[in-house]
Amino acid sequence: MKININDKIFEVQNKITIHGLIKELKLDTSSTAVAVNKVIISRKKYNDLTLEESDKVDLVTIAPGG
């Protein structure tokens, strides 16, 4: 299925969770903030929320340093 991640279209597996998406993109779940369709998602829900076709996902990775 196709979803929009940070304004780019990506092909991902059907019924992928946010946690699965973060792992597929090789990001760290503890330092990645996620919004789906402009709704911020709690880290506690990363394993529970399944993405749907055409969802708009915004990923922000927090990097240490100054």
Task: Summarize the entry for a quick read.
The protein has 66 residues and is mainly beta. Helices cover 11% and strands 33% of the residues.
Order of helices and strands: EEHEEE
Tally of separate domains? 1
Structural class: mainly beta
What is the CATH superfamily classification? Beta-grasp domain
Strand content: 25-35%
The low-confidence parts are none
Q: What overall form do the CA principal axes indicate? A: globular
Account of the 3D structure:
The structure is a single chain. The chain is mainly beta and 66 residues long. The chain has a single domain (2-61), classed as Ubiquitin-like (UB roll). It contains one helix and five strands; from the N terminus they run ββαβββ. The chain has one helix at 18-24, and strands at residues 2-5, 8-11, 32-36, 39-41, 56-61. A five-stranded mixed sheet has the order 2-1-5-3-4, with no helix packed on it. A hairpin with a 2-residue loop joins strand 1 (2-5) and strand 2 (8-11). It is globular.
